[in-house]
Sequence to fold (908 residues):
Amino acid sequence: MNKTINQKAWLFVIPVFILVAFNAVVPLMTVVNYAFQETFGNNVFTWEGTRWFKQILRSERFHAALGRQFLFTGIILAIQIPLGIAIALTMPKKGIGVPVCLVLMSMPLLIPWNVVGAMWNIFALPEIGFLGHTLNDMGFDYNFTQQIGDAWFTTILMDVWHWTSLVVLLSYAGLRSIQPAYYQAAEIDGASRWAVFRHIELPKMKKVLTIAILLRFMDSFMIYTEPFVLTGGGPGNATAFLSIDLVKMALGQFDLGPAAAMSLIYFFIVLLVCWVFYNLMMRNEVQS
Amino acid sequence: MSKITLDNLSHSYLDKQNSNADWALRDINLDWQDGGAYALLGPSGCGKTTLLNIISGLLNPTKGKVLFDDKEVTSQTPVERNIAQIFQFPVIYDTMTVYENLAFPLKNRGMSDGEVDSRVKEIAEMLELTKTLNNRASGLTADGKQKISLGRGLARSNVNVIMFDEPLTVIDPHLKWVLRSKLKELHQKINRTMIYVTHDQTEALTFADQVVVMHEGQVVQTGTPVELFEKPKHTFVGHFIGSPGMNIIPCQLDNGIAAIDGVKVSVSSQIKKSNFSKTEIGIRPEFVSFSKEGLPVKVLKVSNTGRHKIIDTECKSGKIKVLSHSSKNIPSGSAFLSFDQKYTYAYGDNWIIE
Amino acid sequence: MKKFKWLVPTIYIIFLMLPIYWLLNMSFKTTTEIINTYSLWPQKFTFENYITIFTDSTWYTGYLNSIYYVVMNTVLSVAAALPAAYAFSRYKFLGDKHLFFWLLTNRMAPPAVFALPFFQFYSSINLFDTHVAVALSHCLFNIPLAVWILEGFISAVPKELDETAYVDGYSFWRFFIKIFIPTIVAGIGITMFFCFMFSWVELLLAKTLTAVAAKPIAATMTRTVSTSGYELGLLAAAGSLTIIPGAIVIYFVRNYIAKGFALGRV
Fold:
């Protein structure tokens, strides 16, 4: 659509600008303030330059949290994206099954995040939870509050439970927008099921999948409430992802300087990954 | 290549059919000769795409049979029927190059690389796509993409029939003409049965040897373009084909004699039956002229298109359009019309009375 | 293979329903039964937990607080985002692309980063522990999202609609309210759904910015479990009740969900 140049359009944008800036600018400035200074309260600050940044970037604790974070995000993307596509492909296309599937599948998305954590806590507890009890009955020595592997398994299973539906809904919407003529043409061309997926469905889903991957990356990278309620970051620090570690540092130990520096580094990593990924995905579009 | 027969074909998209309106297609019987160029003509929603999809095997008819060379294929898949179909909107595989797109239907059928290569090059040459063969197909313009769709349809040399479902809808007007003549030329070159679906009478009449006109799920007439113009078997054909369409005027039938406003009108054939609920006279504007006596009318409006004039007149029973040469003088106010008997037909309940 | 296609979504839905069922199951048990006996359904079916919640004001005000700020945020986000989305869709103006990108980056900001500064900021302007504070803070991620979704819907409406209205002598605001908003009402519905959803499920900021007066239900829950640690039946009942508003909202927008997700840049 060709747009007209109109500087008065700024007037339309001002309310949004004010509301977001109100929330973004002052708090961000506060973070920046703390990141470069040292304070002992009473609004007395001393300039520390990049000391906190150096400290964080060199700290093993940060490296470990970052490593756990990337591992977690990588695993849940590797599970949720293919699984979401597969479920979308097998979902009914018409009839009563469509609203039934959509409503039931959306349910996890609308449950408050700490309820998700609490729900999974009592679902997975070895004594009283269905999952924990069943696994132990089957002979597995399962206890997510004690064993690192079990804690990871439970956290990942919870995230798959919580967010796969988002990928399903996006993929389903992408699939629905494909004209029937594409399937008919492929049928006449004698294409195999795999070829239909590879050459018709996947390319047509590219944009929704880009959105799905971006959203899932961002939200899983910022994950806090659910694992905090489920495992509290434990056992030990085994499931202390970046946000959990950050809150621990800022509120638990009141190391405001390093915490602020870590916040900025954290935010920067999210922005950088999103930007690189988005550009990679869109590069082919521009070329063709 | 084969002859196509449709035997008593009916189709409905509903599970239960209560009235005629619930059927998308009703009682279709058609015989298409091997190597002919046919057009299916009708307004949107008349069932022509449904009919096409039944022939290609994308849809299974509710009733009736489809035969290729007198062999029943009704339950076969599109692949087994070995047909090609080109759709209204260009269907291309975005991830492939133009070359891979054209090669795709051939490779799926297990053709060797060498054969595929020579066939693709031949088709590309025919459609003037040789230069873009190695480009990504997704970057082409709408008509470039539709050429690829055409190419994929034409790539296999042994198909029984090639079907076109309004293939020029998305093409610019000036390119439409180019591609249409290209298709006509291809038909002569490869001599394969082609079925062309369209709602545009010019496309149908220029492409096809035989035109099948459809209306509300039924075939109302099959014939050459000249037949359809000169002797419409159904009032729908009369006003759908021709510009402006045929005049259809309510009339009285009495003892085999037709009359409008009490003025006797001679028609081309003898009228034997008369028990209709609705009777009409059909005459094309081309065959109406002003005269000293005949049907009295009022002249309402004259519009000049340059080559000829279209005159709107009105008698008591309805409006009548007259087409006359630009240089002729047109009476104003009251006048009389005469009809050329050879092209004047009586219609009972919309069908011609013969 | 086609015959068994229904199996995949069915198994998936069963997997989704299991933890929810377990929560419901527990909510109808007494805490003693939960701890002492393991059973797939309540042995002694009880409404006790629900009765506690509905009669104790510290519990049910939590619900009212949550609903209050969620509705406030939804209305605020959509009302502000509508004209902005219209401007981004229809006009070119100085810095439009940068502004759009900046808005989206706020969706990428980890709430954990902002928790402490938010607390300080809202305390300093005397909004701490008010519904307004939570509603305003959720604008940080809901407004960018609302602008993004609405822009997709608005771009799908041909510009000729606007032009025809101006030719017919409509003033801008009369056109916007009388003609344009009814045209994109489905898009507004979807946007409200998403704003409601993200504001309803978010807890970190909501918890940080409230103490007593505006405390959300979900936060009330965590406190109960962390202090006593044993009131599992109560926790399950409260958790089950938080699913209801979401379920109602989904039911109303079920036909738009798939469409809504597909918008934006599809």
